Amino acid sequence: MSTKLAPTTIGEGALEFDLSPAELRAILEEALLIIGPGARVLAIIPDKTRDDNTDLLFPFATEILSERNVAKFDALVAQGTHMPMTEAEKREKIGLSDGASLPGLGQIYDHQWNRPEELVTLGELSAERVSELTGGLINDAVTVNLNRLLAPGIYDTVLIFGATVPHEVAGFAGGAKYFFPGVAGPDLTHATHWLGALASIENVIGRIETPTRHMIEAAADFVPARIISINSVVTRDDSNRLRTHALFAGDFREAFRRAAEVSREVHIKYTGRKYKRVVALLDEHYDELWVGGKASYKLGGIIEEGGELIIYAPHLRAISETHGLLIEKYGYAPLDRVREMVALSTELQHNLAVAAHLAHVSYAGQRDETGRVVPRYRITMASALDEATCQRVNLGYMDYRKFRREDYESDPDTLVVERAGRDLYLVEPH
User: Which one of 53, 265, 272, 384 has the minimum C-beta count within 10 Å?
Assistant: First the structure.
């Protein structure tokens, strides 16, 4: 395990801030001062399902590192189990949509989580350590396997780019989460997702200290290179302009927590009540339910028992390109029922990230008059998914062409949410 010293954390941020490009560049420049000539640097960047300011920060970092005469600067996409981006999407993500080039930038690599030859084992979290980190929710040893680019001797510094927002598995995204599951192998990918489900979404999302966060940070200590975490907090205004409320860079524990404190102010909305119906106008970045499920994760806390969530998403075309067949085989269900399915299915036991997704989308359960566990609210899809697919996964169906926003806006028991899946809605503060 690494004993390297953590870099100093610098930066600034607050709910009311709107950091300029010059201010962002100055923070980056100071954070990267510890990288000297001849360094070999790997950037870990988000994929297209994340809306952030990588397209602004990455060119700044490339310029700064080029001036420092680093020997090598490559990038690795933290796509987790998502499908790879196209070359055009990668270029746009790092600020090269106009066809320009970045001096000193080498390769941009895809992460292939399910190909053993693309992974390296850096160590193991013992059963005792896992139990301690997770409060006894998981009691098995977990192998720390990551993309082989993170093996000893290839790079001496790793930069993590990414936005900090509430997240259903880790509490908040950012920091070590870009390793696990961002560029991890199946062991920690499945373990972290299932851990998030066992801890229950209601006790995890929007919380900084969670069992998953503690486990992924312990696993990140095995990374041999020095880690500089670059954590942004961003929103979009009505004109679609991206606003940066905060940027903290440095130690992956401290930079994340400072950003998460600002994210709590920026990304959590309090309604003071629950609604019979919530209409989620799904953010355009989510084109499959594997990520579009965030509408349920982030709105479930304000829906009444027996209520309804309508997800309006004409652009959502698939359950999941990677995991769709498994999800359609088992269907969405509350955690108690998913645990029963896992106990009876070796297939789900080997795909615990999928099992966790089944429970997360369903969000929470209640018992009906017969004592059977059923979803606390129903979910209706007004998307490009067909009715048969929705039925297979236990979701309702609505023809999106017949959806009329104005049918719901005047109802006092209905809340219509723009860009659903970005902000977390709660009735009152934790």
Answer: 272
